[in-house]
Amino acid sequence: MSAEAIGALVAALAFCVNGWSMLYLARQTKAAGEQTRVAVEQAKVSNVVAAVSANDDVMSSGVHVHERVPESGSAGPWTDYCRQTVENSPVLRHLLRAHPTWWPHLLSVLPDHLLQADGPARVPAPGGGQGVA
């Protein structure tokens, strides 16, 4: 085999390896993009759950204060606010159902029908990949 033939063979082999390397790099880039998208979605859900948990804490503390101070004039509006908020938040209802012992004071002012299970399309589980309302 001549030197020119060996050179052409090496060049063809290098071209094939380069092409394979580019395709593999594109595949890795696609996987990295997908992992980034999933991580961002998980962070969004985690942030929403953390915010809702903090909101539950505030509402439960308010209800507890009104139980301790019955002469408080804002107990009625506060209870109405808590009911309205729970009624309009699927994520909040999901957390209250999942962890009833975490916010017992808040649960004490809510009607039972608010904590009945919603359809799965309305209440996404944290990390479930669906949008959060």
Describe this structure in words.
This protein has 133 residues and is mainly α. It has a domain of 76 residues. It contains 4 helices and no strands.
Largest sheet: none
Helix coverage percent: 55-70%
Strand proportion: under 5%
Radius of gyration: 28 Å
Distance between the termini: 71 Å
Oligomer: single chain
Per DSSP E runs of 2 or more residues, the count of β-strands stands at 0
Average of the residue pLDDT scores: 80
Count of helical stretches: 4
Structural class: mainly alpha
Choose one word for the global shape.
rod-shaped
Q: What is the H-and-E element order?
A: HHHH
Low-confidence stretches are 129-133
Fold blueprint:
Elements: H1 3-68, H2 75-87, H3 90-98, H4 104-108
Helix pairs in contact: 1-2, 1-3
Task: Give a brief outline of the structure.
The chain contains 4 helices and no strands. With 133 residues, it is mainly α.
